[in-house]
Each structure stands twice: as C-alpha cells, then as structure tokens.
Design a protein that fits this description.
By secondary structure, the chain is mainly alpha-helical. 68% of the residues lie in helices and 2% in strands.
C-alpha cells in the first residue's frame, strides 16, 4: 500500500490537505467508476484534473493499477493529452518516487503532446540514478517518432553499452527509422547484426518487408517473403500479405496484389480463434480499404458483412465502409450505410458526417450537402471546421463565392484546436473579398483564423498586406499556410 498526499487538490478543497489518500494496489475487476468518468469525457479541450480531484474529494479510493490502466486506455485511444494529465497528477500527488517504467511512459507522452524539445528537457531533469534501459528506450522512441536520426543513433549506442536482456524493440525502432530515412544500407547492416546476435523477431522481418514495399523493390520483397514463410522466427500473418499486396498495387500489378489480399483474408478467417476480436476488425477494415482502391466492390461488401458480425459495429467500421464506397462512387450504397449508422446505437462521430459532406461535394451534389448539414443542425449536432471548410471548397468549385466566404467564416467559428483550413480555399476567399473591395470582411475572417491559431502570425501579416495592396499576390501566403 502506498500513501500519497494531494498537492493539486489542496487548492480545490482544504479537506483534502488534512488527510492522506490511500492508493491501493489491488486491481479491480471490470471498469471502475473512476475509469467510467474519465473515459466517458472525450472532449479534447477538457481537463482530467477536476475529475480526479472531485473523485478524491468525494472519498473515492485511489487505486494504483486503475490509474495506470486509465493511462494505458487513454494512450491506446490516442488521447495522449488526457493520459499525460493523469500521469502528471500521479507525479504531483505522490510522496513515493515513480518507477523507471512510469517515468519512461511519461517521457513518451510528453513527446507526443508537447514535442521533442519538451521531452528532452524532461529527460534532463530525471535523476541520474533512475536512468536506465527503460528510460533510454523511451527517449529512443521519442527520437524515432520525430525522425531525429543522429540523436537516435547516440542513444542507441548508450543502450548497446548497457547490454540489456531485451533490446530487440530498440533495434526494431532503429530499423524503422533507417527505413523512413531511406538509409537502406544502414538498415541491412543493422539487421545483419541482429541476425548474428539471434535477436530478430516477427516485427524485424515485417519492418524490412515494409521497407522493400515502400521503395518498390519487388524482387527484394518477394525474396524476403519466401524467407519469412520458411523461417519459424518470422511472423507471417494477414498484415504480411497485405503489405505485399500494397507493394504490388504501387507498381500497378493488380493481379498479384489481389492474390495477396486473398491470402491475407484467408489467414484472418482461418485463425478466428487465435486472433483477438479487435485485431480481426482492424484486419477487415484494412483489407476493405485496399479492395476499394482497386475497385473491387464485391470484396468491400463481403468484408463489411464480416465486420458487422464482430459483436457491435464500431464507428471506425462505418467510417471505413463509407470511405470505401465514396472511392467506388457508390452514392446509393453510401447513403444506405449513413442511414444504418444514424439508426444504430453508435455514438455521434463528426468524422462520418464530414465524410458524407465531402462525398456530396465530390459528386457535385451541393443541394444534398446543404440539406444534410441543415438536418444535422436541426438535430442539435455540432459541426466542426472541417464540415464547413469542405462545403466552402465545393462552393468555390461551383463558382458560388459568396456562399464560399460565408462557409469559411463558419469553419473558423466552429473549429477545434489543431485544425487547419484548406490553404488554397482560404486564400481564394480572401482574393474574392479583395476584388469585391470588402476589406472589412476579409480582415474579420483573417483575424478569426489568427485568434484561433489556425494560421501563424507570419501568414496573417502576409495576407493582410495583400488585402491592403502592399504586395501583389498571395502565392507565398498559400505556401505558408500549408507549413503552419
């Protein structure tokens, strides 16, 4: 049992200062009430701290495995900011030192949420006695994720000097980074070193296979695939064959690509008892997308039916199916899927309406896009910047610039942090307003985009200068927006 005393909570409720919070070590069965409260609150703008503080204030038990499980679940759902908030709450409230593993996880989350510079700053503050393999491996992961090759090589050298028992994962991170950087000679040299040390695993071969596929080295890929099929250490699964299929499609060999997709699907179907439900769903969705890319509608619907037979149908499956049908220009099928999603028990996911709005705009069905948006608003649904931005782009294509301007204005009013506008669409709307001598509205829109952080100060200044006639064109501004 570990006792912690609140540092954050005492500013919320003096009652918490006068008592210790017991952090039990016995993990509960199923979801706890605290997990439900945190996982239910998916608003990226909200903070997890009030939920945690209120929980303690109300006398709730603080159970260590539950908090760690919450961090893991949030991370798996890509809610990295929320996961970091919970991790930092534990740090700020704990009288005991965090383990090296906990510090490593926090380092990884800082890198994802605040960037590499802040992660390095955090690393420099870790006590020397705490720094070992786990923390070095986490730092290597940060460098690999941000594609910082030289820094990663320095840390990899330190890890090799430690000679830990389990370092295959670090080698694999370096292999992937070399592949991403196109350093295939270094990749092969490192993989040979792994073979000599007998530390290759299934992921090792998969990374190399991906590298062959991405570089369109079909001959190399086929040789490695044959080796993998004969090597018990290599993992040959649905993803292996889907990777090969993708490589064949990149070079225009649809026949061999289709054969690989068939092998991949057969593996999933034959191993249903050994492949977890979530992995099967991911496999079917991935294969469905690839079949849509080559125009195989029958396979898309077959895989959709398999997805629907996997317990509850998730929003991700609907989104994948809708995206596939849009690629196939199957308007009727897309509308049926949308209707099925709306009538089901799934939670509202703005990505699905956005996909349908995009589809209507792609097909030139602006009346349907407008009617759908009106129905969403009438039903009390909140649209985001992407919804209006896509409609604005469609209006521009249809030469309805007044409507395009109004839609782009709504885009920023309903946007979320991190969202970026379509650069050329925004610039064209500003151009139109300047041509109409509507300087006031042009500046209003630019001010909104700047205040919301959707364009940088440099881009804002450049476009304002254009509106006032101080520079002749907006070419540089368009390039700047894509870099913001």
């Amino acid at each position: 049992m570990m006792l912690i005393r609140s540092k954050i909570c005492k500013t919320v409720n003096p009652y918490l200062v006068s008592r210790s919070i017991q952090m039990y070590s016995t993990p509960p069965i199923g979801f706890t009430e605290l997990e439900k409260r945190i996982l239910k609150n998916g608003n990226p703008k909200s903070s997890m701290l009030p939920i945690l503080n209120q929980w303690v204030e109300q006398g709730g038990d603080v159970i260590e495995p539950v908090l760690k499980r919450i961090i893991a679940r949030l991370s798996n759902s890509r809610r990295f900011s929320h996961a970091l908030q919970v991790s930092e709450w534990i740090s700020n409230n704990s009288n005991n030192d965090l383990s090296s593993g906990d510090i490593a996880k926090q380092l990884n989350l800082i890198s994802k949420v605040h960037g590499l510079e802040q992660a390095e700053k955090f690393f420099k503050g870790i006590p020397e006695a705490k720094i070992g393999f786990k923390i070095y491996a986490a730092l290597l992961g940060c460098y690999a994720e941000h594609k910082s090759l030289e820094e990663a090589e320095v840390i990899m050298k330190k890890i090799k000097e430690l000679r830990p028992a389990h370092m295959t994962v670090c080698y694999n991170m370096m292999l992937k980074l070399y592949a991403q950087k196109g350093k295939y000679e270094l990749l092969d040299r490192l993989m040979q070193e792994m073979k000599e040390k007998d530390i290759c695993n299934g992921a090792t071969f998969t990374i190399r296979l991906n590298a062959y596929a991405n570089s369109r080295d079909i001959e190399g890929m086929e040789k490695l695939l044959m080796q993998m099929e004969a090597d018990p250490m290599a993992t040959v699964d649905w993803y292996t064959y889907s990777t090969a299929a993708n490589a064949y499609m990149k070079v225009g060999n649809v026949e061999k690509g289709s054969a690989m997709l068939k092998k991949s699907e057969n593996l999933v179907n034959a191993q249903t008892s050994r492949i977890p439900y979530e992995s099967r769903r991911l496999a079917y969705e991935s294969l469905q997308t690839m079949h849509a890319a080559i125009g195989n509608k029958d396979a898309v619907y077959r895989l959709w039916n398999r997805c629907k037979n996997l317990r509850n149908t998730l929003n991700s499956s609907y989104l994948c199916m809708l995206s596939s049908l849009v690629k196939l220009d199957d308007i009727e099928g897309a509308e049926k899927i949308l209707q099925e999603w709306e009538s089901g028990n799934t939670t509202f996911d703005i990505r699905i309406p956005n996909m349908m709005i995009t589809a209507y705009c792609k097909w030139g069905l602006l009346d349907k896009a407008e009617a759908y948006i009106k129905r969403l608003l009438d039903d009390g649904k909140e649209l985001d910047g992407s919804s209006w931005d896509r409609l604005s782009s469609a209006y521009k294509t249809d030469n309805a610039m007044e409507k395009a301007v109004q839609a782009i204005k709504k885009a920023t009013l309903g946007s979320r942090p991190g969202w970026k506008p379509n650069a050329w669409n925004l610039v064209d709307c500003i151009k139109y307003l300047k041509e109409q001598a509507d300087v006031e509205q042009a500046l209003e829109i630019l001010k909104l985009f700047k205040e919301k952080g959707h364009i940088s100060d440099t881009t804002y200044d450049r476009l304002v200068s254009y509106v006032y006639g101080e520079i002749p064109d907006t070419t540089e501004a368009s390039d700047l927006i894509t870099q913001d």
